[in-house]
Amino acid sequence: MREPSRKAWVASVLMGLGHLRAAFPLKDLAHEEIILYGSRRFTPPAEYRRWKRLRRIYYLFSRAGRVPLMVRQELNFRRPLRFGDSVSLEGWVERIGESSVTLWLEMRNAATGEICCDNRQVMVITDPKAHAPVPIPGPFRAQLERHR
Question: Contact 144/90 with Cβ under 8 angstroms?
Fold first, then answer.
């Protein structure tokens, strides 16, 4: 009997070191390498442009000394995907509060258009020194409004 494969498809999101730190210890299990969603190599051009736009919001807060802290995440798997299926990812700002923002993401099978996974994230903007929520500054609120 053949020994089962001890390799896995290891994927991460190119959106800060936290995501990469979680995937890096699994690199020896990866078939060839860690798949980095959001990198030019693994993302179709149109998708890459959308990804850069969404990632800009995150970096905007980080550079301002405000930290978007995820306080709730809801992830729903709707339909299975198989290795090799092409997917598209779309996201938008669902709600903007005084110090929080709710993001909605959908992953679709590119061939069928079916939603395979959806994700809602609630993030609270915090001051890392005070360890407390802070109001979303006007310029950042305007950027968020553009993605509603």
Answer: no
* Span 7-60, pLDDT tens digits: 787 887 776 666 677 788 888 888 788 888 777 777 778 777 777 777 776 676
Q: Are residues 70 and 101 in the same domain?
A: yes
What is the phi/psi pair of residue 23, to 5°? -85, -30
Task: Supply the pLDDT for residue 2.
Answer: 61
Q: How far, in Å, CA of 20 to CA of 2, rounded?
A: 33
The answer to whether 107 and 87 are in contact (CB under 8 A) is: yes
Range of the structural domain that residue 14 is part of:
1-42
Considering the domain architecture, whether residues 113 and 87 belong to the same structural domain is answered as yes
